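Q: What residues go here?
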């Protein structure tokens, strides 16, 4: 069985996408999941529920040139009111497919025009302590 996420579904560089496809395809044989979760008696339901990574957690971490208030603000042009995790929804789906639990995403904002490196490092350390 060959498993491939649609190429337009990911918001990551091709090399990272290829890595994920290689790892996920290898894990489809029972390590990450047994099946896609559907059953022959009702193949239209249950897609994505075959994961075997229950109890495993993941966290996304990102840096943005955008200021934090650009997210979740319907008055801002680019993201149109979408929050940080809305933008990462396809990536979260990849981990959810294997039944992994999402931890809160960590992000640094405005890293080019208004960098706050000291604050970001402190915030990251607090984030890690809180969830790990």
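A:
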């Amino acid at each position: 069985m060959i498993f491939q996420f649609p190429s337009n579904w990911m918001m990551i560089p091709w090399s990272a996408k290829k890595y994920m496809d290689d790892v996920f395809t290898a894990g489809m044989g029972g390590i990450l999941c047994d099946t896609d979760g559907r059953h022959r008696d009702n193949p239209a339901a249950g897609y994505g529920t075959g994961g075997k990574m229950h109890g495993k957690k993941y966290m996304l971490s990102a840096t943005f040139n955008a200021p934090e208030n650009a997210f979740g603000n319907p008055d801002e042009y680019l993201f149109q009111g979408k929050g940080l995790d809305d933008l990462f929804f396809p990536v979260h789906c990849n981990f959810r497919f294997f039944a992994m639990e999402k931890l809160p995403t960590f992000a640094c904002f405005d890293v080019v025009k208004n960098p706050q490196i000291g604050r970001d490092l402190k915030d990251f350390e607090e984030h890690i302590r809180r969830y790990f």
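A: Context that may help when evaluating the design: The longest strand covers residues 61-63. The beta strands are 57-58, 61-63, 101-102, 106-108.
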